[in-house]
Amino acid sequence: MSNKEMVSTETENKGQRKVFVPNKLLECLPRSSSLPNERLRWNTNEEIASYLISFDRHDEWLSCSLKTRPKNGSIILYNRKKVKYRKDGYCWKKRKDGKTTREDHMKLKVQGMECLYGCYVHSSIVPTFHRRCYWLLQNPDIVLVHYLNVPSPEDSGKCSPLMCTLSDRHDTLRWSRDDLQSQLKPMFHSIKCSVGSGEFSIEELVQHILDRQRTKPQPRTHTCLCSTSQ
After folding, report:
1. Is 211 strand, coil or helix?
2. β-strand partners of 139
3. What angle do CA 208, 211, 213 make, to 5 degrees?
4. Which of 47, 154, 158, 172 could pair with 194 as two cysteines, CB 3.0-4.6 Å apart?
């Protein structure tokens, strides 16, 4: 894309921050006047792009410090060069090596134009809890991060604890009660967990997962051939 097809906008802060977007995108998208702190649904591609092309006019939108385990529905805007937003305190699904986080990447279109990049991860405890990160292809330094617990449609807006089971892990991590409570409470902000017609508290959900953990066999490492007499 040539420079003539791009538009840069600057803040009054001596041009330290810039936004580069295609002219056609600016023509079809209105600038946002506010950034929601919480939204219990996914943003549309158009809404995401609108926030990302408007941040330069709103210094207060950018979070300068890392948020630890943001609540369900939280929407946060970071400068990726200044904040290591991936270290958010949540446990996300790992790849088979058990070391790196499993991420899904894709390019997203707005009005038929590829202009957004998306990066999605999934909780290693609750399969319905996600973190989605978005940035403009031409302005990758500014990232919009959204945390959301999305129940299945048949649960009618509630999350069944039967779905909130320990995922298959490739390491030997064992959850403690305190760890589970610190992970689950923000995940279920503004959402109820239920099975059938009954509702469960977070404490009951923690106990449910701990019980499943106890019945799960420990990984087998080796067979001991040592003699007790030796």
Report:
1. helix
2. 136
3. 110
4. 158
Question: Do 108 and 114 form a contact (C-beta atoms < 8 A)?
Answer: yes
> Can you tell me the distance from the alpha carbon of 67 to that of 130, in angstroms, rounded to the nearest whole number?
16
The model carries a pTM of 0.81
Strands annotated E in 48-153: 75-79, 104-110, 113-122, 129-136, 139-149
The structure tokens 């991060």 sit at 145
Which residues, at least 6 apart from 83, have a Cβ–Cβ distance to it below 8 Å? 63, 64, 65, 66
The 10s digit of each residue's pLDDT in 118-162 is: 999 999 998 899 999 999 998 899 999 999 998 755 444 556 554
Q: In this structure, what are the phi and psi dihedrals at residue 130, rounded to the nearest 5 degrees?
A: -130, 160
Buried b (16+ CB within 10 A) or exposed e, 19-55: bebbeebeeebeebeebeeeeeeebebebbbbbbbbb
Give the C-alpha distances (Å, rounded to integers) separating 12 from 8, 18, 116.
Answer: 13, 11, 25
Structure tokens of 173? Answer: 């991590």
Measured between alpha carbons, how far is 204 from 10 in angstroms, rounded to an integer? 51
Distance from CA of residue 197 to its chain's centroid? 29
128 close to 150: Cβ distance less than 8 angstroms: yes
pLDDT band per the 50, 70, 90 thresholds, residue 168: very low
Helical axes 202-215 vs 177-187, angle rounded to 10°: 130
Tokens linked to 54? 């408007």
Distance CA 136, CA 59 (A): 18
State the pairing for strand pair 129-136/113-122. Answer: antiparallel
